[in-house]
Structure formats: C-alpha cells, structure tokens
Amino acid sequence: MNPRLDGKVMVVTGGASGFGAATARLAVAEGARVVLADVQDERGHEIAEELGEGARYVHCDVSQEADVAGVVDRALEAFGQLDCMFNNAGIVGARGPIDEIPLEEYEFTVGILQRSVFLGMKHAARVMKPMRSGVILSTTSCVGLRGGLGPHVYATCKAAIVGLTRNVAAELGAWGIRVNAIAPGKHATPMFADAAFGDPGAVGNTDVFMKMSPLRGRFGTAEDIAEAAVWLTSDGAGFVSGVTLSVDGGLIAGTPEGAEPGHGLYAGHEPLIREGGRRGMQ
C-alpha cells in the first residue's frame, strides 16, 4: 500500500509535544514532509532532527500574525507547497470562577487558543486558494461540545473553533479546500496531566487514565489524535468537510467515566411506559 500522505506537506502548530509531535511523527511515516511550529525550541529542534530531511522546525508564537504567516511561508520555501495546515497549538489558560478571571488572562488565553486558529486558517487559505486544493485542520475539544467539562475560557475558545470550522468550510469548498476539526477527550498527554493532576509527569500513570476513560479497557493517547489528523488529511477523507470529529471514547455520546456494563439506563429491561402512567404492552 502507498503511504497515505505521500508527497504532501503539512504544517503542525504545537508540534513539539503532545498531539502535535505525535501527528508530525505519523505524518512523516506516511510520506509527508512536515514543518513543526512551536515556542518550545529545544524540543522542536530535537523532533525535527529525529524526523530527518522531511521535517523543519520554526519558532512560532501562534497568537502573532507575523509568526503564523512566517510558518506558512517557510513551508513554501522548504517544500514548495502546503497541503495541510494543522492548527493544533494550545494551552489550558485561564481558570477559576467566572467572576474572578482577570481580563488579561482571558485575552492571553483567547490569543493562543482562538486567534491562532483564525490566523492559521487565514494564511493557509491565501496559499491554498490559488492551488484549488488543501486541508485545514484544527484541534478543538469535547469541552467545546458539552458544558461543565473544562475551564470557561478554554471551553469558549474550543466552541468557537467548531463554529469557525463550519463557516470556513462553507466558503472554501468552492476552492476544493476541506476544513475540519478534531475534538479530543481526556487523553494521556502532559498538558492534560498538568491540568488534572498538577503534574505533567503523571502522563505515565496509566491506571489513573484507565479509570477516567469512558471506553472500557482503553484510554486516549496522543497517537489517537495523530491517526485522526492523518486520515482527515489523506485522500481517504476526500469528501469530508465541515465536520468536528470527536475522538473521545464516547464521552460526548454520554458514556460515564469508568462505566460498568449495564450502568444507569441500561441496567436491565423494564416494561415500556405508556400514556397515563400505564406500563407494558397490555
């Protein structure tokens, strides 16, 4: 079988760790050339060196337009084209009760989580429109799809990405450009471990993540998001646009964390409920 991304060029923001690093590794293994963008310079250079001639690292503050534009231009200079822009960079950002969040923390968080996606879409589109092809992906979150799962500002930004994805897909389809988002759940990554346990190193505590998973016997990993990103970039998803793909083990569908078989509504058969409080078929 041919590599799924043979000959394609991908930019991955937040490419020095977590979902971004996993996606960069898988994309290169599938035949792509990748530009990793991040502010974690040492880690970014290490991964680019690990991946070889098919990878470049560029320092990029994704909240700044000049930096985002520069990453797109670097992909063109290095590899001559841009086939996928993966707007993945993120932080947890501002946390706390709605009446206690400082405005400067709100604005900083929005810059990293929401403005960055707008900028990535904008500068990918300026390159992809003349090509009449391309894929724009963005990392949203299950937090943006259901209330009460994460901090207020984070949830706001992630919900905005879902709406922006649909709207930009509605525009760019006329140029043959597909626009989609990926919504992770509670995956074993350093960022989630830091937010949940105050320790990025807790990512190695598989027992804890197993208990938190809605899917019995399995917990989410960075590689799950990488697989989704590579599929959505590939020709195998060539007619998929405007969607948010949840990769969360069924969390948004309603499966509780650590659910046992036959839980809640599914604990056993009961007579159907009819009008007037009647039960059963008779």
Question: What would you say this structure looks like, in words?
Answer:
- The chain has helices at residues 18-29, 41-51, 65-79, 103-131, 152-172, 190-197, 206-212, 222-233; strands spanning 9-13, 33-38, 55-59, 84-87, 134-139, 177-184, 244-247.
- With 282 residues, it is α/β, with parallel strands linked by helices.
- The chain has one domain (9-277): 3-Layer(aba) Sandwich (Rossmann fold), CATH 3.40.50.
- A seven-stranded parallel β-sheet has the order 3-2-1-4-5-6-7, with helices on both faces.
- It is globular, with a radius of gyration of 20 Å.
Describe the structure concisely.
The chain is an alpha/beta fold and 282 residues long. It has helices at residues 18-29, 41-51, 65-79, 103-131, 152-172, 190-197, 206-212, 222-233, and strands at residues 9-13, 33-38, 55-59, 84-87, 134-139, 177-184, 244-247.
Radius of gyration: 20 Å
Alpha-carbon distance between the two ends? 58 Å
Taking the sheet with the most strands, its summary is: 7 strands, parallel
Q: Can you write the helix and strand succession as a string? A: EHEHEHEHEHEHHHE
Helix content: 40-55%
Morphology call: globular
The CATH homologous superfamily is termed: NAD(P)-binding Rossmann-like Domain
Beta fraction of the residues? 5-15%
Based on secondary structure, the structural category is: alpha/beta
CATH fold title: Rossmann fold
Name the strands of the widest sheet in spatial order. 3-2-1-4-5-6-7
Poorly predicted regions: none
Question: What is the count of DSSP helices, taking H or I runs of 4+ residues?
Answer: 8
Number of domains: 1
Number of strands: 7
Named at the architecture level, the CATH assignment is 3-Layer(aba) Sandwich
Mean pLDDT: 93
CATH class: Alpha Beta
